[in-house]
Design brief:
It contains 10 helices and 12 strands. By secondary structure, it is an alpha/beta fold.
Amino acid sequence: MENPSTPSLRVALLSEDSSKSLEVMRALEKQDYLIRQFRLLKRRLPSLEIKTFSPQLLIWVGPGKNLSLLRLFKEGSNGKTAPILYVQSQLSENGIASCLDAGADDFIHSPFDERILLARAQNLIRRELRNGRIDNLPRTSFESGNISLDLLSREAKLKGKVLPLTRFEFDLLAFLIKKDGKVVERKTILFEVWKYPEDVQTRTLDKHIETLRKKLKSESRRLQTVHGLGYRFPPPPPPPPRISPYARSRRPMPCDKRQLTTSLTSTLNCSLNSF
């Protein structure tokens, strides 16, 4: 598996109420984005804080009454701001038009399908990449041996066949594969995948490890328990070196002892008769 060296994409999440942006935050966290939340006040924009963070994508969570703030933010940036994805519930056609007119680059209704949110975000990021405003694009797919993961479609495959993983099983497998064989402590997995506090004692992880191993079949041996520490999912071992046909042809032929003895005796007799 390739070792992911691409730095995290910086995403600014703007909302008046942090509870309304929780669903968006949960979806983004699974993509290894570097996320920072900014609180929108009625008459104040955290413009300086946002500029310092220098996001490559802004996700603006409604309601539509703060479109004036969106317009103000867009005008104040002189068109140099990162692309804006606007999220709002029950967005009418007029609301969509007002949202785009105020400066949003795209929109999505809430509640939303997580895959659609991520796909729209990636589309805006690709546009920035083509325009040269982003140096690289965070990885959304991983391969490890016979296993492949697509983080956008949230699909896992084993030898090309889709694995029937639950949401938590997929998140657990993706988390361990991205660690590239490093040992991860139980408390770290529980917090990063399930958001459990470090002091919580639960058998949730053990149950998911057990069911995940069953579904991984031939790859299950790579999901390793490191007793007293946690778990790891190392890359597959390298394949054995291939021997070229030429090298194989130079191998000595199997020796027949009787044939060799007869040949030596005949050679010796010929040598004696020549004297």
